[in-house]
Specification:
81% of the residues lie in helices and 4% in strands. A two-stranded antiparallel sheet has the order 1-2. The N and C termini lie far apart (129 Å).
């Protein structure tokens, strides 16, 4: 830029010199003036050139200042625009991160619900998955609603689906009760005998033995009913079922 300015100034100086020469009287151009006149003309010409140079330099500085001002204004506008874009992107990033966080929290919550849960069944902590719990609760609700045939089918289906379930002993017991409620006493005896045989440590065994005795009583088989009650009283003497068994033993005599 400095080189261009020098060139411009040089051009202006040359033009000014030529203009001054043209402006001189014909006698001066013809070399018909003396030394004083020549010195005066040269001094005058130099003054004009210097004035023109100052004017050009002044205009050049003003133009440069205006150019820098325009550039600064443009830069400020660009910075403002970039800041606006940065703010938008920052907000979008924050929203995206929050959505991802909410997604993973929701996903973890859903997975936790699908994962097996620890529950207490008949005094024992067991692991039960969501569907398993739903099937069992649904079957039990059917029984409580008085639909014993539907309950029997539901508990039977549950045992087929979840034979190793922590609810298996309870499901088997309620299956026996469903059959008893339908007056299928032989079926009830068979179902409750599975509870006694397969789950000897389960607290429902005492009630299963009482139900077996009741089924035998309904079948008019007092001997088998008495035997079941004796087993109940001997093995589970402190259970509420044993107390009921003692009362029934007296009635069988």
């Amino acid at each position: 830029m400095r080189t261009s300015l020098k060139t411009a100034l040089k051009s202006v100086s040359t033009a000014a010199f030529l203009a001054a020469v043209v402006a001189l009287p014909m006698t001066a151009r013809a070399g018909m003036f003396d030394d004083d006149d020549a010195r005066k003309a040269i001094l005058d010409l130099r003054n004009k050139v210097e004035a023109l140079q100052k004017d050009v330099a002044s205009k050049s500085d003003k133009n440069s200042a205006l150019s820098l001002s325009d550039q600064n204004d443009q830069l400020r506008q660009d910075v403002a625009r970039l800041r606006g874009q940065l703010e938008v992107l920052t907000n979008e990033l924050a929203n995206t991160q929050q959505r991802q966080k909410d997604f993973y929290v929701d996903l973890d919550s859903r997975l936790a619900k699908l994962e097996p849960q620890k529950v207490n069944v008949d005094g024992k902590e067991v692991s039960v998955d969501v569907n398993e719990q739903k099937y069992y609760d649904a079957a039990l609700n059917i029984f409580k609603g008085g639909d014993y045939k539907g309950a029997g089918s539901a508990f039977g289906d549950f045992l087929k689906r979840y034979p190793q379930s922590g609810y298996a002993a309870s499901a088997q017991y309620w299956l026996g009760n469903s059959l008893y409620a339908q007056r299928d006493y032989k079926g009830a005896i068979a179902a409750q005998q599975i509870v006694v045989k397969n789950y000897p440590d389960n607290p429902k065994v005492a009630d299963a033995l009482l139900n077996i005795a009741s089924s035998y009583t309904e079948l008019k088989d007092k001997a088998s009913a008495r035997k079941s009650l004796e087993t109940l009283i001997a093995k589970y003497p402190d259970s509420p079922a044993a107390q009921t068994g003692k009362e029934r033993m007296a009635a069988l005599k």
